[in-house]
Amino acid sequence: MDLSADEARELFANARAAHMATVGADGQPHVVVHTFAVSGDWIFHAVDHKPKRSTNLKRIRNIREHPAVSVLVDQYNDSDWERLWWVRADGDAYVLELDEERADPVGLLTAKYPQYREHPPEGPVIAVQVKRWTGWAYSGPPGRPT
Predict the structure, then answer these.
(1) Which pLDDT score is estimated for 52?
(2) Pairing state between β 85-96 and 37-39
(3) Rounded CA gap, 79 and 56, in Å?
(4) Residue 138 phi/psi, 5° resolution?
(5) 1 and 137 Cβ atoms separated by less than 8 Å
(6) pLDDT at position 140, please?
């Protein structure tokens, strides 16, 4: 069943990892998995200390070229399909690099992920202003009568 925007946002906010799709200058899609935090209609993701091939990340280059992104979270359960759901957030992304811009989003991330409390993300923050929340659940979100 289709989820309301509020139901979709709530399921999304409680998920642990998301997949963000950007588009490069060549028109090719690029998808990365990442941690995130939600505040209202904003999704925040920070470049953290985990090893990466380069600090010149494709997702950041793509966002600067084409700010439209989609971010997806889902739950799959092989043994109980009645627990399946997905939520997609579509919007425009911005790269925040100044300390004063990054402070609140990094605070949200450290509150959600204990791993960040000892080593908060120091890289740029990607801020997605969500224009549309969509989602589907086999039997509706927890708490909604079926």
Answers:
(1) 63
(2) unpaired
(3) 41
(4) -55, -45
(5) yes
(6) 66
Q: Tell me, what's the pLDDT at 121?
A: 93
Over range 2-24, report the average pLDDT.
Answer: 96
Which residue ranges make up each domain of the chain?
5-137
Tens digits of per-residue pLDDT, 51-106? 666 667 999 999 999 999 999 999 998 988 888 999 999 999 999 999 999 999 99
Percent of the chain with pLDDT over 90: 80
Q: List the one residue out of 99, 121, 143 whose CA is nearest residue 37.
A: 121
| CA pair distance 113, 36, nearest whole angstrom | 9
Asked if the 5-137 domain carries CATH number 2.30.110.10, the reply is yes
Torsion sign over Cα 48, 51, 54, 59: negative
Q: What is the CA radius of gyration of the chain?
A: 16
CA dihedral over 29, 61, 35, 139, signed as positive or negative: negative
